[in-house]
């Protein structure tokens, strides 16, 4: 954990959030609101709660890591909102909340009797954050969507992978957590707007749109391709062929700086013995010095990006000869001194045990009653005045009675709701 000072007076202290969301997109958004100080109440089904509690369990009967890693710093109310009593509780919560986050299937909130218009009427100040697979204008707006479906529809899959392979999805949660982060920005913006207007609003983010927002350079490339017929930074140039759609470029650098994943010592047995190497145009001389190839500095076949492009992969092959006797860490230690943009390809194991990532609070160890400690990702956003403290995720319905009492229900009412399975 980190040495930086902790404080309980966090930026979002006093903001009440109903987390009526599940799986990853909604919970990732609301979890971050909680880290920054909001009072987060997760509202879950009585029969099992968020599906991720049960998915991919590593310990029988313990909440899965999928759940615990997306729901830290929250309280849990397990309630059947489709009963009249459950709906009444929900409406009371809405009346007091600042934010509601949901990512149910299209139409589910309406079917539950909680459409946006009704929620807005109940509490005009409430900011309503909603994730769906597609936006309201899409012909596919009725489709239920998971991560890879969004990557397919948002342009990521068609542009990821190698030219001789199929469309490929990224391991990074471009559809799920990325959409949650977009929603977070929208919610915080709407909260700021409320400061001026006094009124809440609905903030909607579709997973397709959020993926596309991260694929904007590929939309750039589509337009360049239509103008020029080729894309000079792709491996297909100049020796291969282009069609009329942006091709998959393998590991090519997406911008103006060519790069590739290059083998280092041990690649034959270690699947991650690689570095990502970038040739920065303005630092070509330094790059040549780092590689012990001073003869390339002024050689007209090497000294401009244009001259290198036709034989770029021969240059990468030469660099791999230089890398052959060095581990990825040794190589990066040399290259960094010459200003070469590069990094070792890190495995999840290396990341999990990286002391620097622990020190910065980017990876944190959290206690959980069912499983002891587990690792999770802490805040990637670092603030100068506070450090988010990451606490455990709640058990299903752990705070049901506490929340109902706060809403003014007495012990008899609460016992009745338990007996009727309205809450657990
Ligand atoms: N009490 C009573 N009913 C509840 C409830 C509660 N506390 N919480 C949820 N439900 C109900 C919903 O109202 C819904 O009922 P309905 O089908 O009769 O309308 C039902 O549970 C199922 O809802 P949902 O969570 O949407 O489940 P699903 O399995 O049908 O679909 C998704 C799951 C993720 C595919 C779908 O929610 C979806 O497409 N969401 C939008 C995009 C998204 O966020 N995808 C996931 C990204 S991580």
Automatic annotation (TrEMBL):
Question: Which sequence ranges are marked TM in the entry?
Answer: none
Q: Which UniProt keywords apply?
A: Transferase
Sequence positions that bind CoA: 45, 103-105, 111, 144-147, 280-282
Report the superkingdom from the record. Bacteria
Annotated pathway: Metabolic intermediate degradation; oxalate degradation; CO(2) and formate from oxalate: step 1/2
Quote the EC number.
Answer: 2.8.3.16
Residues reported to bind substrate? 255-257
Identify the InterPro entries for this entry: CoA-transferase_III_domain (IPR050483), CoA-Trfase_fam_III (IPR003673), CoA-Trfase_III_dom3_sf (IPR044855), CoA-Trfase_III_dom_1_sf (IPR023606), Formyl_CoA_transfer (IPR017659)
Which Gene Ontology molecular-function terms are recorded?
Answer: formyl-CoA transferase activity
Q: Which GO terms describe its biological process?
A: oxalate catabolic process
> Which Pfam families does this entry report, sorted A to Z?
CoA_transf_3 (PF02515)
Reaction it catalyzes: formyl-CoA + oxalate = oxalyl-CoA + formate
Q: Where is the active site?
A: 176 (nucleophile)
Subunit composition and interactions: Homodimer.
Similarity-based family: Belongs to the CoA-transferase III family. Frc subfamily.
Q: Which PANTHER family match?
A: SUCCINATE--HYDROXYMETHYLGLUTARATE COA-TRANSFERASE (PTHR48207)
The record describes the protein's role as: Involved in the catabolism of oxalate and in the adapatation to low pH via the induction of the oxalate-dependent acid tolerance response (ATR). Catalyzes the transfer of the CoA moiety from formyl-CoA to oxalate.
UniProt protein name: Formyl-CoA:oxalate CoA-transferase
Which species does this protein come from?
Streptomyces scopuliridis RB72
**Which gene is this protein's source?**
frc
């Amino acid at each position: 954990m980190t040495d930086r000072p902790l404080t309980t007076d966090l930026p979002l202290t006093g903001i009440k959030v109903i987390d009526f969301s599940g799986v990853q997109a909604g919970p990732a958004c609301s979890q971050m609101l909680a880290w920054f100080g909001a009072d987060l109440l997760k509202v879950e089904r009585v029969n099992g709660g968020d599906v991720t509690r049960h998915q991919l369990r590593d310990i029988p009967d313990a909440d899965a890591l999928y759940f615990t890693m997306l729901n830290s710093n929250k309280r849990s109310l397990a309630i059947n909102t489709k009963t009249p009593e459950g709906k009444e509780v929900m409406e009371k919560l809405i009346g007091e909340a600042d934010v509601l986050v949901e990512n149910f299937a299209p139409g589910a909130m309406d079917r539950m009797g909680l459409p946006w218009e009704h929620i807005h009427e109940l509490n005009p100040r409430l900011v309503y954050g909603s994730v769906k697979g597609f936006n309201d204008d899409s012909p596919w707006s009725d489709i239920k969507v998971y991560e890879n479906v969004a990557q397919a529809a948002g342009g990521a899959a068609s542009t990821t992978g190698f030219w001789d392979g199929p469309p490929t999805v990224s391991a990074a949660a471009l559809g799920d957590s990325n959409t949650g982060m977009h929603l977070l920005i929208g919610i915080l913006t709407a909260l700021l707007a409320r400061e001026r207007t006094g009124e809440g609003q609905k903030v909607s983010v579709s997973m397709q749109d959020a993926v596309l927002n991260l694929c904007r350079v590929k939309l750039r490339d589509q337009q360049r391709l239509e103008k020029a017929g080729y894309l000079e930074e792709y491996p297909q140039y100049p020796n291969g062929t282009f069609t009329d759609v942006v091709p998959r470029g393998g590991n090519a650098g997406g911008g103006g700086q060519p790069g590739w994943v290059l083998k280092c010592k041990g690649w034959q047995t270690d699947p991650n013995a690689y570095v990502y190497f970038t040739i920065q145009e303005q630092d070509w001389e330094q790059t040549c010095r780092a590689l012990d190839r001073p003869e390339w500095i002024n050689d007209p076949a090497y000294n401009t990006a244009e001259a290198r492009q036709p034989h770029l992969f021969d240059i990468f092959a030469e660099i791999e000869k230089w890398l052959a006797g060095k581990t990825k860490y040794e190589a990066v230690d040399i290259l960094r001194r010459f200003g070469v943009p590069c990094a070792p390809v890190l495995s999840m194991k290396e990341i999990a045990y990286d002391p620097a990532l622990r020190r910065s609070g980017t990876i944190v160890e959290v206690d959980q009653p069912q499983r002891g400690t587990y690792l999770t990702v802490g805040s990637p956003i670092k603030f100068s005045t506070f450090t988010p403290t990451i606490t455990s995720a709640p058990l299903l319905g752990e705070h049901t009675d506490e929340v109902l009492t706060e809403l003014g229900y007495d012990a008899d009412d609460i016992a009745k709701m338990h007996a009727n399975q309205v809450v657990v």
